[in-house]
């Protein structure tokens, strides 16, 4: 055998070995789990976070078979303002964020189009409207925040709790009312009241001390936050549904294999469907708990007075959508997203 033949054969063997090693290394690298950090709802926000969201994400990797390692942290535990959800997504600090719709709408008012005051008087209306608007919002988040929307869900009907006795919306004139977003602030302003933005954790003490007279939230959240200890009445008139959602950093999404993308989307859709049902269950139970009725299975019993909802008050909320909520929001939203109002009218608006 010539030395030349031996040399060529040796080179070929070395080349093949290097190629095999590289391929093996690439396969090993691809098989490494992708690290996913999830920023969740506040730990003190209620039973949806405790009983649905946190267990879902903590068990997601094992139950779905996805090639990921996952860490879940509630937003208040992380020490991050819940208003920064979209910024966190864009920065990649967390890969998945449980978006608090009313709060992040300050950064992206398009989000508020899901849940203007007067738009979603029931769970059924909410399902229809959020489905109609989903792809529009998803495209906006992808282009502006490098985030893909995975699903949306309601915390539940937002109703009014008051320390003074009231009989209806007309009695709110001149009062200070804690609000969760700009749409509810605009609504109470139309009633002659003053909207006061305030973190959820500060509301109970503010009601007790008279800093605010009334406050808006869902019955289950109010129950978990002890609001009935500082109030006398609840007006169970749904102003909004407090629509939240899940979104993933788009760069992270693109790192997932097509199979894992499908598994994640399917899993989140299952969680979202579960929360829609659970939210209604919580609302019904919490209204009974807050007013001393039975059965009260999930909350703490109180004895608030439930104010009967009148046809006049229902009409006031319904009219607020076209007379106040939509025009004010559209002006603000169009300023940052020129297609905002047109897209809303072509989707949700077309079905009204």
Automatic annotation (TrEMBL):
Specify the superkingdom. Bacteria
Q: Output one GO BP term.
A: transmembrane transport
> Keywords assigned by UniProt?
Signal
Enumerate the Pfam families for this protein: DctP (PF03480)
Which Gene3D superfamilies does the entry mention?
Bacterial extracellular solute-binding protein, family 7
Name the CDD domains on file.
PBP2_TRAP_BpDctp6_7
The record's listing under InterPro entries reads:
DctP_fam (IPR018389), TRAP_DctP_sf (IPR038404)
Signal peptide extent:
1-22
Name by which UniProt lists this protein: ABC transporter substrate-binding protein
């Amino acid at each position: 055998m010539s030395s030349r033949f031996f040399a060529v054969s040796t080179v070929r063997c070395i080349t093949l070995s290097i190629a095999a090693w590289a391929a093996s290394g690439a396969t090993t690298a691809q098989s490494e789990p992708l690290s996913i950090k999830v920023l969740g709802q506040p730990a003190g926000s209620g039973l949806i976070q405790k009983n649905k969201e946190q267990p879902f994400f903590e068990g997601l990797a094992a139950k779905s078979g996805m090639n990921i390692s996952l860490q879940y942290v509630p937003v208040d535990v992380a020490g991050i303002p819940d208003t920064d959800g979209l910024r966190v997504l864009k920065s990649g600090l967390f890969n998945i964020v449980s978006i608090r719709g009313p709060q992040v709408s300050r950064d992206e008012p398009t989000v508020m189009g899901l849940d203007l005051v007067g738009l979603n008087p029931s769970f059924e209306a909410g399902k229809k409207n959020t489905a109609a608007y989903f792809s529009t919002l998803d495209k906006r988040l992808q282009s502006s925040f490098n985030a893909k929307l995975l699903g949306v869900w309601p915390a539940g009907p937002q109703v009014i709790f008051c320390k003074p006795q009231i009989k209806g919306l007309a009695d709110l004139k001149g009062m200070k009312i804690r609000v969760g977003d700009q749409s509810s602030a605009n609504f109470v302003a139309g009633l002659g009241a003053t909207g006061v933005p305030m973190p959820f954790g500060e509301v109970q003490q503010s009601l007790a001390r008279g800093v605010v007279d009334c406050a808006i939230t869902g019955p289950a959240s109010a129950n978990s936050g002890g609001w009935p200890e500082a109030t006398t009445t609840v007006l169970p008139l749904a102003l909004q549904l407090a629509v939240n959602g899940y979104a993933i950093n788009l760069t992270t999404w693109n790192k997932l294999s097509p199979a894992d993308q499908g598994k994640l989307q399917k899993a989140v859709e299952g969680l979202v469907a579960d929360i829609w049902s659970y939210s209604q269950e919580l609302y019904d139970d919490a209204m009974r708990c807050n007013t001393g009725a039975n059965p009260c299975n999930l909350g703490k019993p109180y004895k608030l007075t439930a104010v009967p909802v009148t046809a006049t008050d229902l009409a006031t909320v319904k009219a607020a959508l076209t007379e106040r909520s939509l025009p004010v929001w559209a002006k603000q939203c169009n300023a940052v997203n020129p297609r905002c109002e047109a897209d809303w009218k072509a989707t949700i608006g077309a079905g009204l």
